[in-house]
Amino acid sequence: MKHQTIQFQGKTINFKIQGEGETVVLLHGFLESLSIWNTFSQELARDFQVFSIDLPGHGQSDTISSIHSMELMAEVVHEVLILNRVDRCAMIGHSMGGYVTLEFAALYPEMTAAISLFHSGALPDTDEAKANRDRTIDIVKKNHQHFISQFIPELFAPSNREKISFEIEQLKEIALKTTSDGIIAALSGMKMRKSHLHTLLTMKCPVLFIGGKQDPRIPVDKLLSQAILPMHAEVLLIESCGHMGYLEKEETTLKAVKHFAERILY
Question: Which of 4, 93, 109, 259 could, after both became Cys, cross-link 98 (CB 3.0–4.6 A)?
Answer without folding.
Answer: 93
